[in-house]
Amino acid sequence: MKNLKKYWLYLLIIILLFSCNKNANNEKEQMAQDSIVNTVAITSSSQNIVNGNNTNSAVFTFSQLVNEKHDYFTDYYWGLSDGRYLEDQSIQTIDWIGPMTPRVIFHKLDIPTGSVLYQVRLRNDLFYFLYQTETEEKKLYTIGTTFGSEPFDVEFRDNYSRLIRNRNNYIFSAGNRVGEQINNKYPLVGIWGSLPSLTEYRLIDPADCLYYMEIDKEIPDWAVRSGTYLLKQTGENVLETISSFPDGWLKLEIIDERQILLRPLFTLPDDEEGIVGLLTMHRNPIKTSEITEEYPYNH
């Protein structure tokens, strides 16, 4: 009788061990399958991003990003980071930490109808915009905050060969024209001054541009300039900059409410250095209106 009980006990132990081992194997197989599925999904998603296809377009659109009640686009700062790993995972990315991190903020474009708009490039470092209204040709108004919000008074001397810009009776910049006058109707057009303040003005048409963005500081090692850019929507989730200067051509691909890809659409001449590579923008969770000294901006 004792031997029979031992027999049944041994049999029960064997059955339990076999069952546990089978469950463990099933779990391992499921984990392996999940890993394959996730790897395929991640690879597919990254490939779609690199190819310019937004896999979230069915559930997320640019119109949602600028929704009046949840304006993720203009109510937040966006931090920039190196996005080249999406195209080549062998690249060692460059990291910017804390205050070193360039950031972007978007604004709605609002200038008077009939204004004359100029895109201005300071050396090869910075873009910004100024405009004249139909009634005040001797004043230049700013777009964005690159050089403050106060207008400039414009004065030409020596038969339009010298330009003086002043603000509140303080001379902000002055310089002679470089080369011939390009446009008699708009004498501001052209190159003025000398290094390190060499500045070029070009006319630009803001048609269909509803927004602009500001990159608040130089992007270390990159060819993408800091400053202000006008934005035109060219696809459901795609924006592109309009620029009179080729190195101002950029493409923004909206991935979702937290991520935007920033892709340069230009090449540099051989005598200029800088990375012409993909950048990513990530939205800060704190609204710009909520950022204070006690609760500072943090990427």
Overview features:
single chain; 299 residues; alpha+beta; Porin; 2 domains; 16-stranded mixed sheet
Description:
The chain is of the alpha+beta class and about 300 residues long. The protein has two domains: about 140 residues, Porin; about 90 residues. Helices cover about 20% and strands about 35% of the residues. The chain contains two helices and 16 strands. It has a 16-stranded mixed β-sheet that branches.
Summarize, please.
With 299 residues, the chain is an alpha+beta fold.
The overall pLDDT average reads: 83
The CATH class name of the largest domain reads Mainly Beta
Determine the N-to-C terminus distance: 74 Å
According to DSSP, the number of beta strands is 16
pLDDT under 50 segments (min length 5)?
27-47, 54-58
CATH topology of the largest domain: Porin
Proportion of strand residues: 25-35%
Helix content: 10-25%
The CATH architecture of the largest domain is Beta Barrel
- The gyration radius over C-alpha positions equals 29 Å
Return the domain count: 2
- The helix-strand sequence is HHEEEEEEEEEEEEEEEE
What about the largest sheet? 16 strands, mixed
